[in-house]
Amino acid sequence: MTFYTSAARAAWLLLLLCLFCTITYAQSVQLTGTVLDPAGNQPLTGAAITLKGTKSGTTTDASGAFKLAADGKGPYTLVISMIGYETQVVPVKAAGEAVSIRLKQATSTLQEVVVGASRVEEKLVRAPVTIEKMDARSIKETPSPSFYEGINNLKGVDMVTSGLTYRQINTRGFASTGNSRFLQLIDGVDNQPAGFGFSVGNMFGLSDLDAERVELVPGAASALYGPAAFNGALLMTSKDPFKYQGLSVQAKAGVNHLGDPNTNAAMYNDHAIRYAKAFSGKLAIKLNAAYMWGLDWYATDYTDVNQTTPVEQRGSKNPAANAVNSYGDEVVRTLTGVGQVSRTGYKELDLTDYNVYSLKLNGALHYRITPKLEAIYAANFAKGTANYTGSNRFSVNGFSLMQHRVELKGSDFFVRWYSNAEDSHDSFNTRSLGQQINRTWVRDLNGSVVTPDKADDMWFTRYSAAYTGTVPNVAGNDHTVARAFADQGRLLPGTAEFNAQKQRLEGIQGLNGAGILSQTSMWHTDGQYNLTSALNNKAEVLVGGNFRQYSLFTNGTLFDDKGGRIKYYEFGAFMQVSKSLLADRLKLTVSGRFDKNKNFAGYFTPRASAVYSVTDRHHFRASYQTGFRNPTPSDQFIKLNVGPITILGGAPGNSAGMNVYENSFTSASVNQFGAGFGADVNKVGPQQALLNNKDKLQKSNVPYIAPERVNSMEVGYRGLLTGNLSVDANYYYGMYDNFILNTVVLRPNSPVLGADGKPNPAAAQDLLSGRVQAFQLYTNAPDRVSAQGATLGLTYRTNSGYQIGANGTWSSFDIRNANPNNVAAFNTPRLKSNVTIGHRNVLPNVGFNVAWHWQESFSWVGSFNSLIPGQVPAYHLLDAQVSYRMPATKTVLKLGASNLTNRYVVQAYGSPAVGGLYYLSLVFDAGLQK
Predict the structure, then answer these.
(1) Which residues on adjacent β-strands are paired with residue 139?
(2) Is the four-CA dihedral 499, 500, 506, 507 of positive or negative sign?
(3) Using one digit for the tens of pLDDT, what is the confidence trace for 97-121?
(4) Residue 54 maps to which CATH number?
(5) Cα–Cα separations (whole angstroms), residue 555 to 194, 508, 561, 731, 857
(6) Domain encompassing residue 34
(7) Is residue 656 part of a domain?
(8) Which residues contact 900 (CB under 8 A, 6 or more apart)?
(9) Is residue 689 assigned to a domain?
(10) Residue 295 covered by a domain
(11) pLDDT digits (tens, 9 = 90+) for 135-164
(12) Which residue of 90, 331, 582, 725 lies most exposed, with the fewest beta carbons within 10 A?
């Protein structure tokens, strides 16, 4: 932790330097005015006022008034903007001139500005690639319980719910419950715990009170955002304490689990507070605290998925049943004279704690060194519990993430440093917990409890003895009786003995328990400079780069790091050039980025785009994009010996001295050799059978792991069809290769090849004699696949204030000639759609919003079910809210529901069925200083 202590000191030193900086403003004056809605001259609260050419800005208070510090004598130029209104530029001759501005209501999104598509501000309609946006008003008025859940209503988005506190976002296919192909930034900071290799939804992110805007860039975005933006990027921005001042408080209470057969209705609470204050226009502070807690959704799918049992024989009566959300019954044996039998499992609801929470604490200091230069220090601490579906079901229990950020930004540049440090605390593997509890109570035939290493063997011995009738007073040939005999002494859920073993095993990290240890950290520095002004606006040129250092530590429970932390780095640099032609109707943009990871060769990702504006109302775009994804820390460095097989990450140094990649056989050829030997041994004897079949063995040729790759093309249109109807449409086609996968090889003690270059008889004998070790290696597949899709979005704003939106997404996957086992699962429905309708003032101070989401059924493939497809049925969800504003008390009362019809739906195979959540919230916002 020395590094983080030093970093914290450096951050505070920077702040002190800023606070006592000798650079001061020129003589400060105040600009004042009022912003009104032309309909009835009503004051507009929250309109943004910016002094053009500086970082100075504020917003209007409850009476529509503003005060803004400025330097010099003038003249000045104010830029006034507000969601739902057209932006105005207002000249002010002198400080004493109070201005009154009446904003014109916008009838379309043509004036909206985005940053994420090109890393610079530009009009949404001229963005070179597809981009979706939620602004501050959309965030406030979303019918979902949180703004993050409301992202699901944007077109092209796939959202998977693993639990109440954990939702995962993806775009354009190849979705998973832990999405390492999708980048998530908050104020430019990567929000992933480094050990996970992906963001845990919004568990460690923004509270609704501090969220200003969200921008979603679907598809390959590595040319600007680096390796994590393989499938897209989600860019979230918090509220600036200079612009959004005062006290805000949210109290939200609700109920879920209505009609749930597994439990009674449960309370849901989500409370937050935010305070921001600016001092003399130079120093501002911001403090945030949010705490959410409730009862998580239950995973209760007990479908028998034992693939070796015929479908018609599966079910609760199958002696070898392996239920989806029951753990311990994965342990299966074929017993002579009995058949295949599985151990009795424990249901997930008896193993995990469904009482979950999310705590978020945030503080920031902003100091304006000059009107165009600002220094920022921010610290975020988050801790929580979630139930997450990965290769197993995991209880992310008390997991914490600590972040520090130091940033210096000007009008044309920024330099940023940040760190992420995680601690897994009391997290555990729920499936391992069930298996380990099953090994604590098994008795031998004399009634004595055996040690855990002998428990599975002894349980099957008891079962076999009972079934074959060799146990006195126990009826034979009865699976029910045999199971009852083998289960004698079984710890029953809810008993003191069961709870004691559960607590003990949760605390044991590694293979002998269920606990998870990860204290991984990373630090990152990046910068960007806009050279446009320096080039006299002849072209828009953007350059930037980053450097990142990882420091992994699991104390040997996952990585080979008992001797110290595993450290590695990556860096990247990019350049983007844009030029407008044909009287500013055609905008061409070319981007290129080079990235290098310590363990992989450097990789270049280009992007090229063109936007042609036929008129101010009609804009066409086309782009070529590339993306790549670096392997996660686990993909690279896992080294876990689980007995019959060792799981081994694919970084070159991870297998040093193990002679695995250099000297091993493919598992398929070993199976062929074994079958041939078995057929010949009784005919010609062991030695000749070996010689007859040894040439069936094949030396493995497994490459070390490398990044995944994608090349994508996209065309789109955004425009205004009528005065009130806007449309956005796009089509994309992508080619994917180098998917990361696992392959099994077997390493004999002897060299696999002899002097003649053929399979070595000694190595073949090692296979027969058990002098061999199996390895599951992380590598890449050579297969290439393609995916394509299209989205269409329509937005209609009536003259009376209603806004109606509808969007649809079509996705298609073509496996081409690839081996299905070599390709990442697409996990995306072919069709999905959203319809929204809302009105901010349907009655005086009363607004509402309704959102309907539908998607068709599709097949989900994931490691949780051993890559065996499971069906996710078609479903639809209805979210709704109605709000009542009380201007006199600066409070908004909202009554809402997520999944209003309370349809219990599963969004990923093995994850829980999610029902309705009904809530009432009260939000107080004191507004900005007057």
Answers:
(1) none
(2) positive
(3) 888 888 877 655 567 889 999 999 9
(4) 2.60.40.10
(5) 16, 12, 6, 47, 42
(6) 27-102
(7) yes
(8) 878, 879, 880, 916, 918
(9) yes
(10) no
(11) 888 999 999 999 999 999 999 999 999 899
(12) 582
